[in-house]
Amino acid sequence: MSKKVETDCIFCQIAAGRVATEILYQDEEVIAFRDINPQAPAHLLILPRRHIPSLAHLSEGESSLIGRMVGAANRLAKSEGLSEKGYRLVINYGEWGGQLVTHLHMHLIGGRKLTDKLG
Who is most buried in 9, 36, 82, 101, counting CB within 10 A? Predict the structure, then answer.
């Protein structure tokens, strides 16, 4: 895994502060902000600061990073008022799985009742 900023990765650029966005959460390993193409009233992205292309590129030694991302998602869900009624956490992998940006990221989606068949 590269620790440098991947110059062609928009999420690396955001994490490095080179592309402006409203940061909703950040710590030394994780950053979160609103999705620019929201699929629900609340649609946030939580991602590692360092470039990891996908879930499949996460080593066993890095697996605690997912827990850190989930912890950030839970805090954000509470601050966004989503905790009481529920929300969804999604990690897409690969083209067929719907991963549009090749940088590991988690979607926090909520603010309306889930209506699709993925359940």
Answer: 82
